[in-house]
Amino acid sequence: MRWFKFILTFSITIFLCFALNHRWGEVPPIAKFLNPFMGCWQNAESIQDNTASEIHLNGLKAKANVLFDKNHVPHIIAENEHDLYYIQGYLTAKDRLWQMELQTHAAAGRVSEIVGEKGFEFDKTQRRKGMVYGAEKSLQEILKNENTKQMVENYANGVNAFIDDLSSKNLPLEYKLLDYKPEHWTTLKTALLLKLMADDLSGYCNDFAYTNAKKLFDKSLFDELYPDFQNYISPIIPKGTEYNFDAIKPDSTPYKNYETQQDGFANVPPKPDYTVGSNNWAVSGSRTKTGYPILCGDPHLRLSLPSIWYEVQLTINGKSVCGASLPGAPGVIIGFNDSCAWSMTNAERDVKNFYHIKFKDASQQEYWCDNQWKKTEQKIEKIIVRGKGEVLDTVYYTAFGPVQYDKNNQLNGKIENLSVAWISHLPSNEMLTIYNLNKANNFNEYDEAISHFQSPGQNFVFAAKNNDIAIWEQGRFPVLKEEEGKFILEGNDSRNFWHSFIPHEQNPHILNPERGFVSSANQQPTDKAYPYFYYGDYYEYRSLRINDVLQKDSMASVASMKALQNDNYNLWVEDFEKAISNCKLQIAEVDFLSKLFTWDKQNSATNESTTFYNLWYDNLTKDVFDDEFNQHKSRLEIPNRDVFIYIMASDSSFAFYDNITTKNKKETLLDNLTLSFNQAMVEFKNLQKQGKSKWADYRATSIANLAKIEPFSVKVNGNGEKNSVNAVSSTHGPSWRMVVLLTPKTEAYGIYPGGQSGNPGSFYYDNMIPKWDRGDYDKIEVLSANDKAEKRIVFLP
Fold it and tell me: What does the pLDDT read at residue 48?
């Protein structure tokens, strides 16, 4: 009996040891995770840790000081560039290592290694898009330049110095939750991070949707739905600007679009939320209270925790650069130095093409191009799936890039052999822009610095203490024939590929314009006078509002620029009301409509009007377009808000107003407005009953944790709306707000929705969110080695 009890007890003990130290699905090993000496308890951090300390690091060349301010922002003061980037890598990894590794695993198509089978399709897509393919080409360029080579290598060595010092108990919390350990950082990971940003900002196109629409609509209707230029634009380069240069002529060979023999594409690659964009502007000292220029920038990206940005000061030889860095990349991406300031917005250009490939046979080893069979290059992708082992996927490469869709990766359940060509596949060195821009003293040096930036295309705004202001749309943009690349192209002729690119000096730009300010907000960059053909996804309402406010503000100040960044006025609603002003709605809720049309059009968190207008517009577009669009198997896109407002205001006989499912009646805009209003009213009253009719409650903006762990996410009130300057949506918004007054001693302010630490157990994980949500800012201090600080670390060799 005693032996039985012993064996039973021993067996239970063995089982519990196994069970508690084994990962079960999404559940981490409980014993390891809850271990009081090495588990999650070790990740709690005290805000009181303000003691000075010393850290000895192998590889440092000299002593360096790091001062931390109240937001845990490191002010790194080094004697040489080697140590500057080494320490930046070390400290960024200390605060954001898991984020850095997750994002670069995502870029490389390696998420399955962490999360298992549910990440496989994502990884497969990333490999077939050519993310690593493009990153490897860019890394070659980075390593060719000695400055950027040292920059990324020293940064990587700093990251690895931190990783090598990590013990199991000090692993970031997510490693414990997901039960794995970090790997060493490489320079390729920095290149991958830049490709991840490029994919977010320029990795989409309309080729599929436009190919579908071209098959179904005549050209005049197609052009009305998807115009290349809109009539009411306020472009980045002011209307009437003359372009005094000899433009490169496009190749004279006609391109050939692919005419699909199938029903079109039922699924198309997803496009980003159109709040992925940004605002920036610079105001000349002639239009400010102080007589000195002001530069402002607020990039709109996905709101996440840990945050996209990591604030930092880098100082060497008494010269400082401050602002927002990307965890995983050295230098400051958006910020200011002792002489000037800069920020960026997305250019929104379409720089991705798809090509139909004709293979010789099922082996896909040869394809037809230039009247001959050409050999493909093949790369076997080894995707490691946690818990399943290795899965192989062969990606075939043509002269037009990797084949994203084929028999092994079917689109719409059908074989469509399509190669993808993307500007980010081409060699480039964006790190050289960052390196030089961080040191720039004047317009000429800014010009030279941004000339190296190829992808994603960006509008670089600039201001200097000598009162120069400028904006430059910079990227590698192809010289195109009219409408070239708007549709899927044939891959049987290499002349369908890009042949030449617009020179940097001919990209749209302006220095010190007469109006006294420059600005961009993802709108059309030029009017039709610009001699190159281009197209993209442009949104005009933020730019119209910004330019209107700046034109009226002849005494701009830091306070007025902060107010403009947080401006919630909905100019789109104003235009919507004008567009329908002649339509006399026959509805029961007359009093409600009267209140609706007399509100202040401020998208504040507590108002209900914004909620109703969004319900109304969503129902209106369904009522106008669904009857026609849903009869086709092809995926079609409704025109964007800007375009549809213009159509409502200018085309009373628009073809889609009539509902083709009704007989003996031809509907008008008024009919659609009335129907959609009543539909929205039903939905709105239901929201009121649920207590969710206020804008903040209806939209439910959340700053989500990257690991999708709900307790580590934060909900915010979130004033603003997609069409406001303060462009906050449920998932996207101003990821960094910065205002810089370029007085002799720079006065700068900034805030972002998160905190410096990636550790949910830290006070600095989300401490800046309440201020960001209120529209407040922190002063960005430029510290020297002898200044007081919340905490100080001395780094020694």
Answer: 57
Where does residue 665 rank: exposed (0-12), middle (13-18), buried (19+ CB within 10 A)? exposed
pLDDT at 5: 47
Q: Which two tokens stand for residue 69?
A: 């301010």
Nearest alpha-carbon partner for 592 in 689, 678, 719, 697? 678
Task: Name the amino acid, one letter, at 124.
Answer: K
Which tokens in the block code for residue 193? 């991070």
Q: Give strand pairing partners of 186.
A: none
Q: What is the pLDDT of residue 269?
A: 80
Give the pLDDT of residue 232. Answer: 80
Handedness of CA 17, 18, 19, 23 (dihedral sign): positive
- Smallest CA-to-CA distance from 459 within 324, 347, 333 is with 347
Q: Which residues contact 106 (CB under 8 A, 6 or more apart)?
A: 122, 126, 196
Contact assessment for residue 235 and residue 381, using Cβ atoms and an 8 Å cutoff: no
Q: Where are the beta strands (DSSP E) in 60-137?
A: 64-68, 74-78
Total residues found in the chain within this entry: 797
For residue 763, the SS3 value is: helix
Residue 32: predicted pLDDT: 43
Give the chain's radius of gyration (CA, Å). Answer: 28
- Please report the beta strands in 215-339, taking only residues with DSSP state E, as ranges in sequence order: 279-283, 294-298, 300-302, 304-305, 310-316, 319-325, 334-337
Question: Would strands 401-405 and 389-398 be described as parallel, antiparallel, or unpaired?
Answer: antiparallel
What pLDDT, on the 0 to 100 scale, is given for residue 247? 97
Asked if residues 243 and 474 have their Cβ atoms less than 8 Å apart, the reply is no
CA–CA–CA angle 250, 253, 255 (5° rounding): 95
* Strand positions, DSSP E, 273-425: 279-283, 294-298, 300-302, 304-305, 310-316, 319-325, 334-337, 340-346, 352-356, 366-369, 372-375, 377-385, 389-398, 401-405, 418-422
Which residues of the chain, if any, have pLDDT below 50? 5-6, 10, 13, 16, 19, 31-33, 35-42
Alpha carbon 463 to chain centroid, angstroms: 24
The pLDDT, as a whole number, for residue 263 is 76
What is the pLDDT, as a whole number, of residue 13? Answer: 46
Q: Maximum CA pair distance of the chain? A: 101
DSSP lists the bridge partners of residue 235 as none
Antiparallel, parallel or unpaired: β 294-298 and 401-405 = unpaired
Which residues, in sequence order, are bridge partners of residue 398?
A: 401
Which phi-psi region, left, alpha or beta, contains residue 219 (left: φ > 0; alpha: ψ -120 to 50)?
Answer: alpha
Q: State both tokens at 359.
A: 């293979």
Q: CB atoms < 10 A from the CB of 19, how many?
A: 12
For residue 399, give every residue at least 6 positions away whose Cβ sits within 8 Å of its Cβ, in sequence order, or none.
369, 374, 491, 494, 497
The b/e string for 739-748 (b: 16+ C-beta within 10 A; e otherwise) is bbbbeeebbb
- pLDDT for 33: 43
